[in-house]
Design brief:
With about 350 residues, this protein is an alpha+beta fold. It folds into 2 domains: about 5-250, Glutamine Phosphoribosylpyrophosphate, subunit 1, domain 1 (4-Layer Sandwich), CATH 3.60.20.10; about 260-340, Immunoglobulin-like (Sandwich), CATH 2.60.40. The chain is about 25% helix and about 30% strand. The chain has a 6-stranded antiparallel β-sheet. β11 and β12 (about 270-275) form a beta hairpin. α2 (about 80-90) crosses α3 (about 95-105) and α4 (about 160-170) packs antiparallel against α5. Residues about 1-25 have low confidence and may be disordered.
């Protein structure tokens, strides 16, 4: 059995319990993309669990590998979600998708909805947008960054969203690790105010990330806590599941790194560094992009069979990431250090 599926089923089986249902799907969540790896993902939690609707908060999440991530929340409706999916597949930007959804709400009540959407444009640049209707339950708001959108309603206050953003931006590691950390930033009793009496932030939680070549039904990271016993924090339960998944992932990625097609040297570098690519996949040319630790593109070069030497004049001391793409796909990525 697939390891991720096994863990998800195990947690559902051991933690499932009946809780009081709710009438509206209110939640806090984040959607984000990684410009270095091409990954897209999202994470969220809500005082809504499996007893109210199958999957709990998971219903808000729609991830389209290599394209983007959509969260449709607050009085969630499957038709609105499907419409958002269809518009992204047609090539609309996040702003355009939200404009379309507001104009074409299935129940003509767009001000009850909340959306967070991120994607890549045709050149691989991130785009983000969010919408919070005036009729969403207070406290309600959203935050937009270059490659992320954070949104929530029926919240304890703005501090929940601010804490999620801070943790997302200041956590080192993969997109999955940043998303998990963002949820931890909201782990406050009553973050979703309906859960205050239980002393938890929420009743269900998830984190999901897709690599560019993933199938939509088999994502690289798909971890869900659909319900928890009374007083048990679902974000903590999700963290346990995430830590187990991360161990498994790191073991497998170390094996993959042994077969990496690219090499950076010296590492750390001071004045110059070189990136060389092995001639695999019948590869004759490739694009090498360099990003800083905020995911911003700072350098780019075309590889045509010979090692590429980069000058570090415009680089500062710190961690940098490289991405190798060719044959219409991301072939490799990694990180290196600059020390001056």
């Amino acid at each position: 059995m697939n390891f991720r599926l096994f863990l998800s089923l195990l947690l559902v089986a051991t933690l499932a319990i009946m809780s009081n249902g709710v009438s509206a799907q209110d939640t806090f969540s984040i959607v984000a993309v990684d410009t270095i790896t091409g990954e897209v993902g999202g994470a969220g939690a809500s005082c809504l669990d499996d007893s109210a609707i199958a999957g709990g908060v998971l219903i808000i999440s729609d991830i389209i590998p290599s394209r983007g991530s959509i969260h449709t929340q607050s009085y969630w409706h499957p038709t609105n979600q499907q419409n958002a999916h269809n518009r992204m597949m047609e090539g609309m930007s996040p702003d355009e998708i939200i404009e379309w959804l507001v104009a074409n709400d299935i129940q003509n009540t767009p001000q009850k909805r909340q959306y967070g959407i991120v994607d890549f444009d045709q050149e691989g640049h991130p785009r983000s947008a969010a919408f919070t209707g005036t009729s969403c339950h207070n406290y309600k708001n959203h935050i937009i960054g270059p490659n992320y959108a954070i949104q929530g309603n029926i919240l304890l206050g703005q501090q929940i969203l601010d804490s999620m953003e801070y943790r997302f931006l200041n956590t080192e590691g993969s997109l999955a690790e940043k998303l998990m950390s963002a949820l931890q930033g909201a782990k406050v009793p009553g973050a979703d105010t309906r859960c205050l009496n239980e002393g938890t932030s929420s009743l269900s939680a998830f984190v999901r990330v897709a690599k560019p070549n993933d199938h939509p039904d088999s994502l690289w990271c798909h971890l869900v806590v659909t319900s928890t016993p009374y007083g048990v924090e679902p974000i903590d339960s999700l963290q346990v599941l995430f830590d187990q998944w991360l161990i498994w992932t790191n073991i497998n990625e170390r094996k993959l790194n042994e077969a990496s097609i690219s090499n950076v040297f010296p590492n750390p570098a001071s004045q110059t560094f070189t990136i060389d690519i092995k001639p695999v996949y019948e590869l004759n040319q490739a694009t090498i992009r360099i990003f800083n630790n905020r995911g911003l593109l700072i350098d780019e070069a075309q590889w045509q069979g010979e090692p590429i030497i980069f000058n570090t004049v415009k680089y500062t001391t710190g961690i940098y990431y490289f991405q190798v793409s060719g044959n219409n796909m991301i072939l490799d990525s990694g990180k290196f250090n600059i020390q001056k």
